[in-house]
Prior knowledge:
The chain is α+β, with helices and mostly antiparallel strands. It folds into two domains: 9-138, 2-Layer Sandwich (Phosphorylase Kinase, domain 1); 145-232, Transferase(Phosphotransferase), domain 1 (Orthogonal Bundle). The chain is 31% helix and 21% strand. It contains six helices and nine strands; from the N terminus they run αααβββαββααββββ. The chain has helices at residues 9-22, 25-34, 55-58, 98-113, 145-152, 157-176, and strands spanning 59-67, 71-78, 84-91, 123-128, 132-138, 179-180, 189-191, 200-202, 209-210. The two termini are 31 Å apart. 25% of the residues are buried.
Amino acid sequence: MGNCCRSPAAVAREDVKSSFSNHDHGKRINNENHNTNKKTPPPVTVLGGAAKDNMEERYLVDRELGRGEFGVTYLCIDRDTRELLACKSISKRKLRTAVDIDDVRREVAIMRHLPKSSSIVTLREACEDDNAVHLVMELCEGGELFDRIVARGHYTERAAAAVAKTIVEVVQLCHKHGVIHRDLKPENFLFANKKENSPLKAIDFGLSIFFKPGTELNLRCRGIDYLNVKWFE
Length: 233
């Protein structure tokens, strides 16, 4: 994820509201003027039994940290404890199909299913409102493994071995609990802090799936930059 200090907290909170609530406000008003009898469809429920909550009652949403195809990750602050956290907000407007909705449900289910580990980002809670699904997670302030590799230019054999060991441990833990990440790449590993010896944590389980031992998997689902060359043979 990128790191972008766009605005003060108050402005950032308005950005969150507008991105989820007001993006198509003008279009909706125009439609209502021409179709006064047309009913607005009820909001999509993604998390099932989870209560629909107002994020801003519990968290102060601050600057944007990064964005992906479906979600935007923001810095957020727990209003009670003042703890700094990260909130990945997935706009329901972008969940256009049942498959999209199932993908989000599975991502949440997998993060809840995996045991707490120093090598995997911790999901604090998942909730939703009418506009978005919000995944509140621990904040990793050290940046991406990708960016640190680029900044350093090269790793010593010892340092590279430590990184590789963490990645293998993540794979082992996931497989032990019936999960395949399916999107392992330097961009999906974050350092907990900016120290050289910072813990490295896996993030983004959006493409992950549950599996049963012995199941053959042959679906391509990652970015082309990290595909095995055998896919092109």
